[in-house]
Task: structure prediction
Amino acid sequence: MSIEQRARNFLSVLRHCQVLGMTVEQADESGLVIKLPYSEFIVGNPVTGVVHGGAITTLMDSCCGISTVCYLDEFEICPTLDLRIDYMHPAEPGVPIFGFAECYRVTPTIIFTRGVAYQNSREEPLAHVVGTFMRMGKGSLDLNRPPRTAGGAA
Amino acid sequence: MNPQIEQLVRDAHQTGDYRPLIEQIPYARMIGMRVLRLGEEMVFHLPISKDNIGNPVLPALHGGVLAGFMELAAMLHLMVSMNSPSFPKIIDFSVDYLRAGLSRDTYATCQVWRQGRRVGNVAITAWQTRSDEPVATARAHFKLD
Result:
């Protein structure tokens, strides 16, 4: 299965990402791009129409988390340990937001990711993001396995 | 400045009813956020919802929704504690996930550690079963107008 297909499969099971209408735009060995369409439901400031940071956090948490498929041979559920977002400027209302993420260090237990959220080009980021993920081992997305309760969210 | 928002903040402050203010924030409506006023304290509440699920296996609350809920909580807490007529703008946000945020009701409280003239620093704690066993902690900086 191609990296892009695995990324699409991963995104398709995340219910909240489907509610927000997120789609995989591109995925290969160099990283992952996910699109978050603009909608009035994700506005945080009703005066300006600017999207709430929470929707951008959801985009980037998902993007960083799913970018692990660009580097891992098999599906692994990787709970987020921590995530940090620095906002460069507010998103322009009415325009989709793209998230790009890559893994810059993979160890047997931890995956370090970084990325940007942008609208026009990756060189003009709305936000810079770093996220750290924990590896839970292979097959942890297998629906037949008993639930695991260790680790963080997502 | 927005006179309508200003009035909503003032009313919420006086009556302890934050619903009309939250109704004005589409993202808060979408995730289904609520606010409980306990004396002078504010406890933010995110009722369970299948639309907020990320990992379907656990099932778990999406980490982004949990973070978004905590960011909103910090923003509203700051607005109310400052009696601010405008929405504080997020500068940065950092969240540590401590336990699996399961598909359960989630609560958050905030602490303003520093409120300067231009920037506010807020710490947020989110829990599900017990307040001394947080599922996540976060801190945020906001630009104040």
